[in-house]
Predict the 3D structure of the following.
Amino acid sequence: MSSERGSVARLMSARHCLLVLLAMLTGCAGSLPPATHSGAETAVLTDDSFLSNQSRQRLAEANGQSGYYLLDSGQDAFLYRAALIEAAEQRIDAQYYIWNRDDSGLHLAGRLLLAADRGVQVRLLLDDFNAEGIGELFASLDTHPNIYIRIFNPARNRSGWGRWVSFLMDFQRINRRMHNKTFVVDGAAGIVGGRNIGDEYFGFDQSRYFRDRDVLAMGPVVEGMADNFQAYWNSRWAYPASDLYASAPADTELAETMEGLRQQAVAQPRLPVSAPTGAEQGRSELAKAFNRMTMAPGELVFDPPPENMDAPSETPKRSALALQRLAQTATREILIESAYLILAREQLQALGATERPQLEVAALTNSLASNDLVTNHAGYARWRPYMLEQGIDIYELKPDAEACRQWLSEDAFCATGEVSLHSKSVVFDRSSLVVGSFNVNLRSIYLNGETVLIIHSAELAEHVAEDIRRVMEPHNSWEVALDEDGDLQWRSGEAVFTSEPTVDLWRRAKSRFLSWLPIEKYL
């Protein structure tokens, strides 16, 4: 299962070239008219819920600061999302780029259904690019009186070849994706970060684990998460699922689907961990994190949805500008942890690392061996020598990194499975920390909608900085450098490689060929 699949990466194949020709001949693609919304689904939140009371009590002496708890492990990320659902009393607002139809995805969807059964209003907003596998299930959930589901920036055709024709014939619009990831409950507590919903993000998949980071938060920054959700929920490009899946299943089939989801959510037949069920278990689980929260100033920055999908995408978006300001004021160290690292000349010159010799800039990203997308690695490889020339230290994650045993409790997986970097964090001078959906690449800068949480806490910044530095060590990553002749080499202790390590010639050739193409903005 791929992670944050880029548009070009999904379109560049012989089959899709054939689809372009087919589209020209049939003219079957077209844009949907902008959506209109009544606003009838907006619940009135009160301040007497469990989570509201917790926030008020725990932040009473915080002087306007927010509380943060880092979710470094996939298992914790799953359990605290599940706990928030159980603790919900009024409304759940969830916004994701990917929601997989696998064990964890179906369990969380089923618990959302059970929350709706007890009167909680559930609003779920999904990006359309990866919705094909689960869209019809969510359209069924949308029939529940307390569940509202919208799809952001959808293709007119919902499946098969017609869907790809819609993508290809409306390329400019389709490239504007909602990459934001937030989960807000009762307007009082929420989770923001880099994880989508799926087994590979929570450590439940048997073949691949996407290393990532989220933050559980309460306080003023949660208001920013809520504003982020509402902006996309009300966008003219967010379509009710009922408008996209007009042919509803028969009543009997619908009832069977809903009841099956409920039963699976209760029985938890395939989950490798026991998830909390019921308000008491959810509150107890959350209390553990609330007791360990760090109080600090912070801000939630998000890119608003575009008004005009056809407008030029040549200006950095709000989240990119926020990171740029932090980078330009750093004086000692910038540590970057990004699954996809694609910076071209303009961005590197704006960073100004060569003009500040006292500033150390180090980046951790995927190697060709650990990257789930050869296309995205190729876009990075195109600019890798220039990044090194600009004084950036680069480390590439090994697919068999020993850190796997700190990230996951199952040694069996670490012996046979592969790890990939999926996290998106930046630490500035070990005093400020950024966690969110923002990959340090051109797509996040210019095209995607992104969300970043900026935390001004030396304690949390130091924790993440040390974690990034540990993964940069030789038993976890290769250090990439230029030799005396200006050629690339990969170092791991005493071992030195002169080509991309531990991958076959064909994968290297694909990366090399794609790196010649100026498509990095779309990866």
Q: What stands out?
A: Residues 251-267 form the longest helix (17 residues). The chain has a mean pLDDT of 91. Residues 150 and 241 are 5 Å apart (CA to CA). DSSP finds 21 helices and 21 strands in the chain.
